Amino acid sequence: MMTGTFSIGELARATGTKVETIRYYERIGLLPPPARTGGNYRAYAQLHLDRLSFIRRGRDLGFSLDDVRELLRLSDDRQRPCGEIDQIARGHLAEVERKLADLAMLRGELRQLIDQCQRGTIAECRIIEALAPRAEGKIFGSPTP
Amino acid sequence: MMTGTFSIGELARATGTKVETIRYYERIGLLPPPARTGGNYRAYAQLHLDRLSFIRRGRDLGFSLDDVRELLRLSDDRQRPCGEIDQIARGHLAEVERKLADLAMLRGELRQLIDQCQRGTIAECRIIEALAPRAEGKIFGSPTP
DNA sequence: CATGAACCCTGTAGCCGCTTCAGGGTCAAG
DNA sequence: CTTGACCCTGAAGCGGCTACAGGGTTCATG
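^ inputs. structure came back:
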Protein backbone atom coordinates (compact mmCIF):
# COMPACT_ATOMS: atom_id res chain seq x y z
CA MET A 1 0.00 0.00 0.00
CA MET A 2 1.27 3.50 -0.94
CA THR A 3 2.55 5.68 1.86
CA GLY A 4 -0.12 7.99 3.23
CA THR A 5 -2.92 5.71 2.13
CA PHE A 6 -4.43 2.59 3.63
CA SER A 7 -6.34 -0.47 2.54
CA ILE A 8 -10.00 -1.21 3.03
CA GLY A 9 -9.13 -3.64 5.81
CA GLU A 10 -7.13 -1.00 7.66
CA LEU A 11 -9.97 1.50 7.26
CA ALA A 12 -12.36 -1.14 8.53
CA ARG A 13 -10.27 -1.76 11.65
CA ALA A 14 -9.72 1.97 12.24
CA THR A 15 -13.46 2.70 12.21
CA GLY A 16 -14.98 -0.53 13.46
CA THR A 17 -16.84 -1.04 10.19
CA LYS A 18 -17.01 -4.23 8.16
CA VAL A 19 -15.20 -4.27 4.84
CA GLU A 20 -18.41 -5.13 2.99
CA THR A 21 -20.21 -2.24 4.62
CA ILE A 22 -17.53 0.17 3.42
CA ARG A 23 -17.93 -1.09 -0.13
CA TYR A 24 -21.69 -0.76 0.31
CA TYR A 25 -21.34 2.88 1.41
CA GLU A 26 -19.27 3.54 -1.66
CA ARG A 27 -21.84 1.88 -3.90
CA ILE A 28 -24.66 4.05 -2.59
CA GLY A 29 -22.56 7.19 -2.89
CA LEU A 30 -22.09 7.87 0.79
CA LEU A 31 -18.33 7.43 0.75
CA PRO A 32 -16.41 8.80 -2.28
CA PRO A 33 -14.54 6.20 -4.35
CA PRO A 34 -10.87 6.16 -3.36
CA ALA A 35 -7.83 5.91 -5.63
CA ARG A 36 -6.72 2.43 -6.70
CA THR A 37 -3.36 0.73 -6.49
CA GLY A 38 -1.75 -1.16 -9.35
CA GLY A 39 -3.45 -4.34 -8.19
CA ASN A 40 -6.82 -2.57 -8.19
CA TYR A 41 -6.96 -2.32 -4.41
CA ARG A 42 -8.75 0.63 -2.89
CA ALA A 43 -6.25 3.16 -1.46
CA TYR A 44 -7.94 5.37 1.11
CA ALA A 45 -6.76 8.77 2.30
CA GLN A 46 -7.37 10.74 5.49
CA LEU A 47 -10.49 12.26 3.91
CA HIS A 48 -12.11 8.84 3.80
CA LEU A 49 -11.25 8.03 7.37
CA ASP A 50 -12.77 11.32 8.50
CA ARG A 51 -15.88 10.82 6.48
CA LEU A 52 -16.41 7.21 7.49
CA SER A 53 -15.87 8.09 11.15
CA PHE A 54 -18.57 10.72 10.80
CA ILE A 55 -20.91 8.19 9.23
CA ARG A 56 -20.25 5.64 11.97
CA ARG A 57 -20.94 8.14 14.73
CA GLY A 58 -24.14 9.19 13.05
CA ARG A 59 -25.24 5.58 12.67
CA ASP A 60 -24.35 4.83 16.28
CA LEU A 61 -26.66 7.67 17.26
CA GLY A 62 -29.37 5.94 15.23
CA PHE A 63 -29.55 8.37 12.32
CA SER A 64 -30.71 6.84 9.04
CA LEU A 65 -28.30 6.73 6.13
CA ASP A 66 -30.35 9.47 4.50
CA ASP A 67 -30.05 11.60 7.63
CA VAL A 68 -26.32 10.98 7.67
CA ARG A 69 -26.08 11.93 4.03
CA GLU A 70 -27.85 15.19 4.76
CA LEU A 71 -25.74 15.89 7.84
CA LEU A 72 -22.61 15.37 5.78
CA ARG A 73 -23.85 17.69 3.08
CA LEU A 74 -24.74 20.40 5.58
CA SER A 75 -21.52 20.06 7.52
CA ASP A 76 -19.54 20.87 4.40
CA ASP A 77 -20.80 24.46 4.38
CA ARG A 78 -19.30 25.83 7.59
CA GLN A 79 -20.96 29.27 7.25
CA ARG A 80 -24.48 27.92 7.03
CA PRO A 81 -26.65 28.45 10.14
CA CYS A 82 -27.14 25.22 12.00
CA GLY A 83 -30.92 25.26 12.22
CA GLU A 84 -31.28 22.49 9.69
CA ILE A 85 -28.89 20.31 11.64
CA ASP A 86 -30.89 20.98 14.74
CA GLN A 87 -34.09 20.02 12.93
CA ILE A 88 -32.72 16.67 11.82
CA ALA A 89 -31.50 15.89 15.32
CA ARG A 90 -34.79 16.93 16.91
CA GLY A 91 -36.77 14.89 14.41
CA HIS A 92 -34.67 11.88 15.21
CA LEU A 93 -35.02 12.43 18.93
CA ALA A 94 -38.79 12.57 18.56
CA GLU A 95 -38.72 9.25 16.74
CA VAL A 96 -36.54 7.68 19.38
CA GLU A 97 -38.96 8.87 22.05
CA ARG A 98 -41.89 7.39 20.18
CA LYS A 99 -40.12 4.05 19.91
CA LEU A 100 -39.25 4.15 23.59
CA ALA A 101 -42.88 4.68 24.53
CA ASP A 102 -44.00 1.85 22.26
CA LEU A 103 -41.44 -0.53 23.66
CA ALA A 104 -42.28 0.37 27.25
CA MET A 105 -45.94 -0.50 26.56
CA LEU A 106 -44.86 -3.75 25.00
CA ARG A 107 -42.68 -4.63 27.94
CA GLY A 108 -45.60 -4.10 30.27
CA GLU A 109 -47.86 -6.37 28.28
CA LEU A 110 -45.24 -9.08 27.96
CA ARG A 111 -44.48 -9.01 31.67
CA GLN A 112 -48.12 -9.39 32.52
CA LEU A 113 -48.44 -12.33 30.16
CA ILE A 114 -45.41 -14.09 31.55
CA ASP A 115 -46.36 -13.44 35.18
CA GLN A 116 -49.69 -15.11 34.62
CA CYS A 117 -48.25 -18.28 33.13
CA GLN A 118 -48.69 -21.06 35.68
CA ARG A 119 -46.50 -23.58 33.89
CA GLY A 120 -49.37 -25.97 33.29
CA THR A 121 -50.44 -27.29 29.89
CA ILE A 122 -51.05 -25.15 26.89
CA ALA A 123 -54.78 -25.62 27.35
CA GLU A 124 -54.51 -23.41 30.44
CA CYS A 125 -51.68 -21.19 29.24
CA ARG A 126 -52.44 -17.52 29.68
CA ILE A 127 -50.02 -16.54 27.00
CA ILE A 128 -51.78 -18.55 24.34
CA GLU A 129 -55.07 -17.42 25.78
CA ALA A 130 -54.08 -13.82 25.32
CA LEU A 131 -53.15 -14.47 21.72
CA ALA A 132 -56.02 -16.77 20.79
CA PRO A 133 -59.12 -15.10 19.40
CA ARG A 134 -62.10 -14.66 21.63
CA ALA A 135 -65.61 -15.67 20.53
CA GLU A 136 -66.41 -12.03 19.77
CA GLY A 137 -63.97 -12.21 16.95
CA LYS A 138 -66.35 -14.39 15.00
CA ILE A 139 -68.00 -12.96 11.96
CA PHE A 140 -70.51 -15.77 11.65
CA GLY A 141 -71.60 -16.64 15.16
CA SER A 142 -74.76 -18.53 16.03
CA PRO A 143 -77.63 -16.06 15.66
CA THR A 144 -78.67 -14.54 18.97
CA PRO A 145 -82.36 -15.52 19.29
CA MET B 1 -69.25 -14.98 -1.60
CA MET B 2 -70.54 -18.36 -0.31
CA THR B 3 -72.42 -18.30 2.98
CA GLY B 4 -70.21 -19.01 5.94
CA THR B 5 -67.13 -17.75 4.13
CA PHE B 6 -65.73 -14.31 3.48
CA SER B 7 -63.50 -12.53 1.04
CA ILE B 8 -59.95 -11.38 1.57
CA GLY B 9 -61.17 -7.80 1.93
CA GLU B 10 -63.63 -8.78 4.64
CA LEU B 11 -60.93 -10.74 6.45
CA ALA B 12 -58.65 -7.72 6.14
CA ARG B 13 -61.23 -5.40 7.67
CA ALA B 14 -62.09 -7.90 10.43
CA THR B 15 -58.47 -8.21 11.54
CA GLY B 16 -57.02 -4.84 10.65
CA THR B 17 -54.57 -6.40 8.22
CA LYS B 18 -53.84 -5.24 4.68
CA VAL B 19 -55.00 -7.47 1.86
CA GLU B 20 -51.45 -7.75 0.50
CA THR B 21 -50.18 -8.80 3.91
CA ILE B 22 -52.73 -11.61 4.08
CA ARG B 23 -51.60 -12.88 0.70
CA TYR B 24 -48.03 -12.58 1.90
CA TYR B 25 -48.78 -14.68 4.99
CA GLU B 26 -50.28 -17.33 2.74
CA ARG B 27 -47.24 -17.28 0.47
CA ILE B 28 -44.83 -17.87 3.34
CA GLY B 29 -47.02 -20.64 4.75
CA LEU B 30 -48.21 -18.83 7.88
CA LEU B 31 -51.85 -18.82 6.89
CA PRO B 32 -53.27 -21.94 5.16
CA PRO B 33 -54.58 -21.42 1.63
CA PRO B 34 -58.35 -21.03 1.71
CA ALA B 35 -60.90 -22.53 -0.67
CA ARG B 36 -61.61 -20.65 -3.89
CA THR B 37 -64.87 -19.48 -5.43
CA GLY B 38 -65.84 -20.03 -9.05
CA GLY B 39 -64.23 -16.70 -9.94
CA ASN B 40 -61.00 -17.78 -8.21
CA TYR B 41 -61.55 -15.53 -5.21
CA ARG B 42 -60.22 -16.68 -1.86
CA ALA B 43 -63.07 -17.87 0.38
CA TYR B 44 -61.98 -17.79 4.02
CA ALA B 45 -63.58 -19.70 6.88
CA GLN B 46 -63.66 -19.13 10.63
CA LEU B 47 -60.40 -21.06 10.96
CA HIS B 48 -58.60 -18.40 8.98
CA LEU B 49 -60.06 -15.57 10.96
CA ASP B 50 -58.95 -17.23 14.19
CA ARG B 51 -55.48 -17.91 12.91
CA LEU B 52 -54.97 -14.47 11.44
CA SER B 53 -56.20 -12.84 14.65
CA PHE B 54 -53.65 -14.88 16.55
CA ILE B 55 -50.93 -13.77 14.16
CA ARG B 56 -51.93 -10.11 14.46
CA ARG B 57 -51.90 -10.21 18.25
CA GLY B 58 -48.52 -11.85 18.23
CA ARG B 59 -47.15 -9.25 15.84
CA ASP B 60 -48.65 -6.43 17.89
CA LEU B 61 -46.71 -7.81 20.85
CA GLY B 62 -43.60 -7.59 18.72
CA PHE B 63 -43.01 -11.29 18.13
CA SER B 64 -41.20 -12.14 14.90
CA LEU B 65 -43.02 -14.10 12.24
CA ASP B 66 -40.88 -17.09 13.15
CA ASP B 67 -41.87 -16.75 16.80
CA VAL B 68 -45.51 -16.51 15.76
CA ARG B 69 -45.13 -19.59 13.62
CA GLU B 70 -43.72 -21.49 16.58
CA LEU B 71 -46.39 -20.20 18.95
CA LEU B 72 -49.07 -21.35 16.51
CA ARG B 73 -47.47 -24.77 16.20
CA LEU B 74 -47.21 -25.16 19.97
CA SER B 75 -50.71 -23.89 20.62
CA ASP B 76 -52.13 -26.67 18.47
CA ASP B 77 -51.11 -29.33 21.00
CA ARG B 78 -53.23 -28.42 23.99
CA GLN B 79 -51.75 -31.16 26.24
CA ARG B 80 -48.19 -29.99 25.85
CA PRO B 81 -46.68 -28.28 28.90
CA CYS B 82 -46.34 -24.58 28.29
CA GLY B 83 -42.67 -24.18 29.17
CA GLU B 84 -41.70 -23.66 25.56
CA ILE B 85 -44.27 -20.93 25.16
CA ASP B 86 -42.93 -19.30 28.28
CA GLN B 87 -39.41 -19.50 26.89
CA ILE B 88 -40.33 -17.76 23.66
CA ALA B 89 -42.11 -15.01 25.55
CA ARG B 90 -39.24 -14.55 28.00
CA GLY B 91 -36.73 -14.45 25.19
CA HIS B 92 -38.75 -11.78 23.47
CA LEU B 93 -39.13 -9.79 26.67
CA ALA B 94 -35.36 -9.87 27.16
CA GLU B 95 -34.87 -8.53 23.67
CA VAL B 96 -37.40 -5.77 24.22
CA GLU B 97 -35.60 -4.80 27.41
CA ARG B 98 -32.29 -4.68 25.61
CA LYS B 99 -33.75 -2.42 22.95
CA LEU B 100 -35.29 -0.18 25.59
CA ALA B 101 -31.94 0.25 27.31
CA ASP B 102 -30.23 1.03 24.01
CA LEU B 103 -32.84 3.59 23.06
CA ALA B 104 -32.73 5.24 26.46
CA MET B 105 -28.97 5.71 26.07
CA LEU B 106 -29.51 7.12 22.62
CA ARG B 107 -32.12 9.54 23.86
CA GLY B 108 -29.71 10.82 26.46
CA GLU B 109 -26.97 11.42 23.94
CA LEU B 110 -29.29 13.12 21.48
CA ARG B 111 -30.72 15.39 24.15
CA GLN B 112 -27.26 16.46 25.21
CA LEU B 113 -26.32 17.20 21.62
CA ILE B 114 -29.42 19.25 20.98
CA ASP B 115 -29.16 21.15 24.27
CA GLN B 116 -25.68 22.27 23.38
CA CYS B 117 -26.60 23.64 19.97
CA GLN B 118 -26.40 27.42 20.16
CA ARG B 119 -28.07 28.07 16.80
CA GLY B 120 -24.97 29.67 15.39
CA THR B 121 -23.23 28.57 12.21
CA ILE B 122 -22.24 25.04 11.44
CA ALA B 123 -18.62 25.93 12.17
CA GLU B 124 -19.59 26.22 15.83
CA CYS B 125 -22.30 23.57 15.85
CA ARG B 126 -21.90 21.10 18.67
CA ILE B 127 -23.88 18.47 16.86
CA ILE B 128 -21.52 18.42 13.92
CA GLU B 129 -18.62 18.68 16.31
CA ALA B 130 -19.79 15.56 18.09
CA LEU B 131 -19.99 13.70 14.81
CA ALA B 132 -16.85 15.02 13.20
CA PRO B 133 -13.66 13.06 13.79
CA ARG B 134 -11.14 14.32 16.26
CA ALA B 135 -7.46 14.60 15.42
CA GLU B 136 -6.77 11.37 17.33
CA GLY B 137 -8.66 9.54 14.64
CA LYS B 138 -5.80 10.12 12.26
CA ILE B 139 -3.79 7.11 11.20
CA PHE B 140 -1.03 9.17 9.63
CA GLY B 141 -0.38 12.13 11.86
CA SER B 142 2.76 14.20 11.86
CA PRO B 143 5.43 12.15 13.63
CA THR B 144 5.81 13.06 17.29
CA PRO B 145 9.51 14.09 17.63
C1' DC C 1 -77.60 -5.33 -22.08
C1' DA C 2 -73.78 -2.07 -21.38
C1' DT C 3 -71.02 0.44 -18.31
C1' DG C 4 -68.47 1.70 -14.39
C1' DA C 5 -66.79 1.14 -9.77
C1' DA C 6 -65.22 -1.74 -6.43
C1' DC C 7 -63.29 -5.57 -5.62
C1' DC C 8 -60.21 -9.60 -6.71
C1' DC C 9 -56.17 -12.26 -9.12
C1' DT C 10 -50.92 -13.23 -10.25
C1' DG C 11 -46.27 -12.02 -10.49
C1' DT C 12 -42.58 -9.04 -9.86
C1' DA C 13 -39.87 -5.49 -7.87
C1' DG C 14 -38.89 -2.21 -4.23
C1' DC C 15 -37.87 -0.59 0.67
C1' DC C 16 -33.57 -0.37 4.55
C1' DG C 17 -29.06 -1.47 5.86
C1' DC C 18 -26.51 -4.37 5.38
C1' DT C 19 -24.60 -9.60 4.93
C1' DT C 20 -23.30 -13.56 2.44
C1' DC C 21 -21.85 -16.02 -1.28
C1' DA C 22 -19.46 -17.55 -5.58
C1' DG C 23 -15.61 -17.21 -8.14
C1' DG C 24 -11.93 -15.25 -8.80
C1' DG C 25 -7.14 -11.91 -8.35
C1' DT C 26 -2.90 -9.92 -5.49
C1' DC C 27 0.73 -9.87 -2.33
C1' DA C 28 4.14 -10.95 1.28
C1' DA C 29 6.36 -14.53 4.09
C1' DG C 30 8.61 -18.91 4.41
C1' DC D 1 6.68 -21.97 -5.26
C1' DT D 2 3.24 -22.45 -2.27
C1' DT D 3 0.44 -20.95 1.39
C1' DG D 4 -2.61 -17.90 3.52
C1' DA D 5 -4.25 -13.37 4.25
C1' DC D 6 -6.07 -10.09 2.00
C1' DC D 7 -8.56 -7.92 -1.95
C1' DC D 8 -11.94 -7.64 -6.18
C1' DT D 9 -16.82 -7.87 -8.60
C1' DG D 10 -21.55 -8.97 -9.01
C1' DA D 11 -25.56 -11.03 -7.47
C1' DA D 12 -28.66 -12.73 -4.09
C1' DG D 13 -30.65 -12.98 0.56
C1' DC D 14 -32.56 -11.24 5.14
C1' DG D 15 -37.43 -9.50 7.53
C1' DG D 16 -41.80 -7.95 6.89
C1' DC D 17 -44.08 -6.17 4.27
C1' DT D 18 -45.63 -2.60 0.27
C1' DA D 19 -46.45 -1.18 -4.35
C1' DC D 20 -46.93 -1.70 -8.72
C1' DA D 21 -48.56 -3.59 -13.63
C1' DG D 22 -51.78 -5.78 -16.06
C1' DG D 23 -55.35 -8.15 -15.97
C1' DG D 24 -60.33 -10.76 -14.32
C1' DT D 25 -65.01 -10.76 -11.51
C1' DT D 26 -69.07 -9.00 -9.48
C1' DC D 27 -72.77 -6.11 -8.80
C1' DA D 28 -75.55 -1.94 -9.05
C1' DT D 29 -77.12 1.42 -12.10
C1' DG D 30 -78.90 3.41 -16.58
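Residues 7-9, 19, 23, 39-42 of chain B lie near DNA strand C (CB under 10 Å from a C1'). The beta strands of chain B are 35-36, 42-43.
thumbs up if we can close this ticket
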